[in-house]
Write a structure and sequence with these properties.
By secondary structure, this protein is mostly beta strands. The protein contains no helices and eleven strands. Strands 2, 4, 5, 6, 9, 10 and 11 form a seven-stranded mixed sheet that branches.
């Protein structure tokens, strides 16, 4: 069974940092892209970063570029999203997603207070 499980969310103040984890099971994520998305209250889900382990290709949305970093631990089948300099507008539920299998994690809440 293909499964993605996020963790690492929480509540921080403006300027704080969090590190999200996405543990992948049921397939080797090294063969396919894993994307990080977020959905703020009342807004559509948006993609903020994408990582293709096999090629090392990484993409960031302009809203997080320079503040967020995606990386992975192949041995742990885990993709991470390091989030620094957090802003109140980063408040959202964060999800990881496999495009190839079209599978979503359950999401993890990130709340940034001013």
């Amino acid at each position: 069974e293909v499964q993605l499980v996020e963790s690492g969310g929480g509540s921080v103040q403006t300027g704080g940092s969090l590190r999200l984890s996405c543990v992948v099971s049921g397939f080797s994520f090294g063969d396919y892209a894993i994307g990080w998305y977020r959905q703020a209250p009342g807004k559509e889900r948006e993609e903020i970063s994408c990582f293709v382990t096999s090629t090392g290709s990484i993409w960031y949305d302009d809203s997080v570029k320079g503040r967020f970093t995606i990386d992975s631990d192949n041995a742990k089948n885990t993709v991470y999203l390091q989030m620094n300099s957090l802003k109140p507008e980063d408040t959202a539920v964060y999800y990881c997603h496999s495009d190839y299998y079209n599978v979503w994690g359950q999401g993890t809440q990130v709340t940034v207070s001013s």
